[in-house]
Amino acid sequence: FDIGITVAEHFQRKGIGKQLIQFILERGKAIGYKRATLWTRIDNIPMIKLAEKLGFKKEKSREKDGHSWNQYALVVE
Predict the structure, then answer these.
(1) Cβ contacts of 19 within 8 Å, gap of 6 or more
(2) Exposure winner among 4, 40, 58, 76, fewest CB in 10 A?
């Protein structure tokens, strides 16, 4: 399954994004998903760090809408 979240700027850096992704991963596992992916712009360093901290690995890159994006994936165990 593909994860997509947005945290309003004034709520960023408070652990909300991490909690959201962890909840989504737990829910995905509970309903039988085995793999999660997410896309983030290559200049979104906080999201890249969070994804890597949660165990996501970079898989591929693409150009879309005038921006460079990386896809990260995680096997849900």
Answers:
(1) none
(2) 4
Is the full-model pTM beyond 0.85?
yes
Question: N- to C-terminal Cα distance for the chain?
Answer: 14
Cβ 5 vs Cβ 21: under 8 Å: yes
CB 34 within 8 A of CB 7: no
Confidence of residue 77 (pLDDT cuts 50, 70, 90): confident
Q: Tokens for 41, please give them.
A: 């712009």
pLDDT tens, 24-61?
999 999 999 999 999 999 999 999 999 999 999 999 99
Side by side, the strands of the sheet bearing 35-41 are: 2-3, 35-41, 67-75, 57-64
Contact 36, 28 (CB under 8 A): yes
